[in-house]
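User: Here's a chain of 624 residues. Predict its fold as tokens.
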Amino acid sequence: MPNSHQETMTISGPTQLVEFLSGVTFFSEVSKTSLLQLCRNLKQERYEKGDSIIQKGEVGDAMYVILDGKVKVHDKDHLYIMLSEADCFGEYALIDDEPRSASVTAVKDTTLLKIGTTHFVELMSLDRGFAKGILSVLIKRHRELDIIQERLTVSKRELELANSKMTGLIDGAMDAIIMFDKNFRILLANASALDILQNEDVIQRNILFFLDEEGADMLENLVQSDESGNGKGMNTYLPKMVKVIGSMDRETLNEGTISSYGNDKDKFYTLILRNIDERIQAESKITSLTNQAQYLQEEIKELTSGYGIIAKDRSMKEVLNLVEQVAHTRATVLIQGETGTGKELVARAIHMASNRNERPLIRINCGAIPENLIESELFGHEKGAFTGATSSRKGRFLLADKGTIFLDEIGELPLALQPKLLRVIQEGEFDPVGSSTTVKVDVRIIAATHRDLLQLSNEGKFREDLYYRLNVFPIPVPALRDRGKDVCLIANQMIELFSKKLNKPAQSLTKEQERLFLNYKWPGNVRELQNLVERAIIVSQEGEIQWSSVIPNPNQSSSAEQLIDTAQVYTAEQWSEMEKDNILRALKQTEWKISGKNGAASLLGLKPTTLTSKIKALGITRPV
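Assistant: Prediction complete.
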């Protein structure tokens, strides 16, 4: 043992020692938490000028870090290198038990930190962060082995052995690891990298040649930014996915990280890539299936509500006859009728009776989507087509391919967008927003409106040619007041439905009660009937419903207060349900628009803020 003495660390405490080790190249990638674990078993050794620290031929059991002072690495009188503060030596003792290839002697009084092999190996196996940091440094030092070889003139066997161990670590990685210089020349690539590059001979080739244009630009920008930075290096995730194009033209999508090391003169980069093709394909398929299922379930829930179309009256039977006539054709259908008459149900009936019934029925309300978004909703858009378009999106026409699309409230379609719809009807094709590629679709178009489209076309508010293309097969849906006893049949079915749904008993209509339903004019049609029956079931007592107090009396004011039986006292819970139902009716009539001239707040005579508070308090949520 050379002249030295051992003592516990007392320099500046563990925190300062961790900071010191963070600046040592060998530990530069190790977290401070892991370095603190390392410091618990470090020892300090003090050597005076001329003391021998390592003798050539000895089997090492530790590596050293110079805390202060200076040492020389030599073979007798031949000097290999001088080392000073923060330099390391003896690292090979951590991975093998070979004799030392050179001697190390103190040039002046020197303090060393001794890191024992046993403790180092234990940390490598127990502390993943420590192992990852050391491995990262070793990968960076792989390129520096040539320089070390020149300076230390180590034997060929020692160099091959060290390189074999390092290559084993790199090639064992499932991710692609590619090291390149600041000129983008590949210096090292592991087996996974050679696989995605589809090339066994990539050394000294330009990494940019294996990337698509967007990926190459991104990598160039990252390297240029690092070159002009503050010299601290780079270690970051790639900001977006990168497409790798192999030598055999196979394309793969990858996510990854990039890090840099070296100095301004010699700087190198490590790119680690993970193939995510299978994940992207799975996510895309799930998204597509989810969208189709969501639309289909939404239509089933919203359009049928379990009671379908009831048609005993001649006027409605004529509608079903028209449905049967047109269902198996490709003709465009225009359904006309007042709001709430069941135009959606007629559209669904056409779809279900057609040979497209195994494909989706996609519905879109042209009056419920902002004018600046409806084109994207209908036809889709490409990434970057407009502000906020962070990814490509399929439009509803594409979702409806081989199926049916139902354009509700077609009279609200912006005039500027109507030529594009006309093109789809005539040619079966369209261009997504921001794309120059034409998309072909096979879609059955059913439109609906409560407005007079011919009058709108005469006023210049609707294209005349589009009107005639839509009006190939018109189906007028009668108002509920014109359907005779259908109103009573529908009401009885709704009573049964809501009785089960709300778990409250209710009786079918009597003859006297039916007369009340037949005498009322139903300005809100089936939708009004549904809301009225639901409210009646909610406030019913032991199955008894005072329909005379529920059905609006045309000879009285239509105010909500006069629709309530003034002789009956309601509980707080019943009153809350009535208020909730009233608000829901207003929201449905205004397509869930709260503020503005035609909003629910105006309809209810409330401030928008007051209505918003009530919506939250009553737990009202818009159906999906």
